[in-house]
Amino acid sequence: ETGVTQSPTHLIKTRGQQVTLRCSSQSGHNTVSWYQQALGQGPQFIFQYYREEENGRGNFPPRFSGLQFPNYSSELNVNALELDDSALYLCASSLGGTHPGNTIYFGEGSWLTVV
Amino acid sequence: EDQVTQSPEALRLQEGESSSLNCSYTVSGLRGLFWYRQDPGKGPEFLFTLYSAGEEKEKERLKATLTKKESFLHITAPKPEDSATYLCAVPLYNQGGKLIFGQGTELSVKP
What we know:
The structure holds 2 protein chains of 2 kinds.
Chain A: E1 5-7, E2 10-13, E3 19-24, E4 31-37, E5 44-50, E6 53-57, E7 64-68, E8 74-78, E9 87-94, E10 105-106, E11 110-114
Parallel strand pairs in A: 2-11
Antiparallel strand pairs in A: 1-3, 3-8, 4-5, 4-9, 5-6, 7-8, 9-10, 9-11
Chain B: E1 3-7, E2 10-14, E3 19-26, E4 33-38, E5 45-50, E6 56-59, E7 62-66, E8 70-75, E9 84-92, E10 98-101, E11 105-110
C-alpha cells in the first residue's frame, strides 16, 4: 500500500472526447508526476508538479495538461483524445521535489481505452 | 541521449532456479537508480534505490547491485510469487525529476 490513490480505475472514451484523471498523493508528499504506460512498455514521463507548479515535462503535446491543488492532489487532463492515448496512466508522488534520496511511489493507475 | 535498456525481455525459470536481470544505462551524471516490481494491471511497486557504484541492497530473495554502467537484479531460489515484470528507472534531476524507465523484464517462475 503506497498511499497513492487514483480514480477512476477504468474508463472508456470516444475519440475526440476529453478526460480527467485524478490522483491523491501519499500524505505529506508535495511532488506529483504523471506517466503513460502502453502495453508491454515502460512508463513514459508526462510531467511533474512541485508545490502546484509544473517543473518538468516530457515529450507530450499540449493537449495533455495537469493541475496540482493546495492539498497536493492532482489532475491529468487530456483533450481531443486519440486512439493512441489508450494506456495505463500512472500517478507517482514523492516528498521534497527532485532530490536524490526521494523515493517515488506509484498508484495503481487508471486504464484508459479510447474507441 | 539518456537511455535505459533491460535484458532479457522475458525470462522463464523453474522454482529454485537462480538468475539475474540486467539494466544498462547511459545518462549523464547518474544520481541514483530505482528498481520496481509491476504485477499485471497494477502500478509499479518500489523495491530498491541504489546511489553509487558498488552499492548493494537486499530484500528477501532479491539483491540489487550497481556498477558505473549497469545494474543487476539477482533472484535467488525464486518462487512462483516472484513472477512479475521488473522495471529499472533512472531519475534525471535536471529535467524536473523525470524517470527514464527500461522496457522491463517479464519474469515467470514455474513450480
